[in-house]
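Structure tokens please, single chain.
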Amino acid sequence: MGRHVLVWDAPNVDMTLANIIDGKPTAKVRPDLAVLGEWLVDHAGEDDDVEACVFINVAPHVAGPLRGWVLWLLEQGFRVFAKPKHGDSDVDDDMIDHLWDRHDAGDLEAVYVGSNDAKAFLEPLTELAGLGVSCNVLGFSEYAGQLSVTDDLRFVDLEAISGLFGEPLPRITLDTLPEDGRWFEPTGVLGRR
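Here you go.
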């Protein structure tokens, strides 16, 4: 029996979604974390302990609207770590500290990191993998950099998790083209700069 731990970098995933859709993400395009919770439980053994944690940075102007989402996450079985947003503060170090705390408890079998931030997570995940922990990264291949190609890490593209998104995202991925090619439609007007 081992522990499986998910740490979800909500600010990073939201920022990456904003880049993909070229706008502010809404509930319609955000991943359904209830589906992610089911996926996580399905990937653990029957006797494994599964813990799913969402990490958020809370700016004062969104504290009210975020409350409902946090309550929903708690009802779905997620733990939530919320930290006030000040300047360029982030939750990456808090996520990494949590993973090391779980490792130090002695029963960490697998980690799942929902983030595209290779700068923050490549080194600690590679270190954990070297200690025998199964390390999985959940992100978008075109934004995850080294996290998506490092041998010691298993990369899962978020859109590959069935049902996580209500509709396909408008991604421009050239590494998974169909054999007969694919058209990409313009997003701007021809002849205008």
